[in-house]
Amino acid sequence: MTRLAHIVRHPIKSIGYEELSHASLYKGRVMDFDRHWAVAHEAAKFQGQPEGWQAKMNFLRGVAGPELMAIRAQLADDAVTLDHPRAGQITLDLDTEVDRGRLIAWLRPLWPDNRPAPSHVVRVPGQAMTDMRQPWLSILSLDSLRELGAQMGADLSIHRWRGNLWVEGWPTMTEMDLIGRKIRIGGALLEVHEPITRCRATCVNPGTGVEDAETLVALETVWGHKDFGIYAQVIEDGRIAVGDKVEVL
After folding, report:
1. Which of the 8 DSSP states describes residue 169?
2. Type and span of the H or E element at 28
3. Where do you find CATH 2.40.33.20 in the chain?
4. What pLDDT band is residue 78 in, cutting at 50, 70 and 90?
């Protein structure tokens, strides 16, 4: 049976990943608390809190600061706990100015000195700071990941790819043939829109924050492109859980 193997969210854009056992998906929305906050840098095209969605170039990202990729996150009630192998652990209430300042201070040693410095925490009510303006989730294939890893001679973590939903049981790379199709996962229905083109953040080991695998070269060599995973939009509310059946309609 094709099944849902992992559910992942990223409470702060590019700063920590969290695995879940279940989630509720809602029509026309991203996963709750996915990219709920983001950290702008000093060269951002806006000041203070923007009025809506902003492009990824305005924020701290793993492609510019590889050490960010090694942060883990856990969201509970009003607090998010971050953990990094070098920076240690911090628990924050990001609705308070004091803790927003604490986050900026905690991040500074993990961010390259030659990049615009972390500036402030961004939160736009009702708008996730995902890479795409549209309210899409990302769906990836464990089978494709295993094949890519086998071709590279590496055990590739799912967290290199910052995906939301990982499916097990699809033939390798057949997810790329699902553009325009609908997918039933548990009680939710999603429609696939386009493939995800990857950047060098995927070259970083999320256990160490160090680049150690040429994933983009491998994608080009094995499949002739840099796409890995697909974007989809929820078109029917529903609850999903790890182990749920995944059906292409």
Report:
1. S
2. none
3. 3-29+132-248
4. confident
Of 77, 45, 78, 24, the closest CA to residue 187 belongs to 24
Average pLDDT over residues 87-113: 97
Place of tokens 């049976």: 1
- pLDDT for residue 81: 98
**What is 3-29+132-248's CATH number?**
2.40.33.20
For residues 187-225, one letter each, b for 16 or more C-beta atoms within 10 angstroms of the residue's C-beta and e for the rest, the string is ebbbbbeebbebeebbbbbbeebeeebebbebbeebbee
pLDDT reported for residue 77: 85
The continuous run of DSSP H or E covering 150 comes out as: helix 142-152
Closest CA to 61 of 127, 16, 100: 16
Taking residue 101's Cβ as centre, other Cβ atoms within 10 Å add up to: 13
